[in-house]
Amino acid sequence: MRYAQIADGATKTYALVLATDDEAVSEITAFAKLENVTAARLTGIGGFSQATLGYFDRDKKQYQPFPVPEQVEVLSLVGDIALRDGAPLLHAHALVGHRDGSVTGGHLIMGRVWPTLELFVDVYSYRLQKLPDADVGIAILDLSV
User: Fold this and answer.
1) Taking CA atoms, which of 49, 79, 83, 116 is between 20 and 30 Å from 17?
2) Please, what's the b/e burial string for 85-110 (b: 16 or more CB within 10 A of its CB; e: otherwise)?
3) Predicted local confidence at residue 130, as pLDDT
4) ∠ CA 47-130-42, rounded to 5°
């Protein structure tokens, strides 16, 4: 992964370029740790050689993973970064396009980059936290802190 800060001010913007075989979730999380990100939103496009997406099962209160075992275009990757237990946590969704033009989407669990993934990350000075919500079953943004 390579990255550069491309705008400064109240919001800092970074461009990230992930390379072939990088794993998207771990690389984005590593960037967030290196830059001490406490609140951010991100968008991206590119490609995966394979991925695992998920659908949140509200009865089981967990993500049900489903594999995408083929090369796909990342048509849209959107998400946020906030703190969970003091560490940056990525929450992202991806819409991927298949060779036949069909699409698959869901919560991004894993994405192996091919050939590249290009992201823009807007980092805020605010300290966002995700706290567990027992009713929902996941950690959600808490704006009261």
Assistant:
1) 83
2) eeebbbbbebbbbeeeeeeeebbbbb
3) 96
4) 30
Q: Which residue has the tokens 């001490």?
A: 36
Q: Which domains does the chain have, with CATH numbers?
A: 2-142 (3.30.1330.80)
Distances (CA, A) of 76 to 97, 99, 134, 142: 9, 16, 30, 26
pLDDT for the residue 144: 85
Write the DSSP symbol of residue 35.
T
Helix (H) or strand (E) holding 31: helix 24-34
Q: Please state whether the predicted TM-score (pTM) of the whole model is above 0.85.
A: yes
Residues 6+ apart with CB under 8 A from 34: none
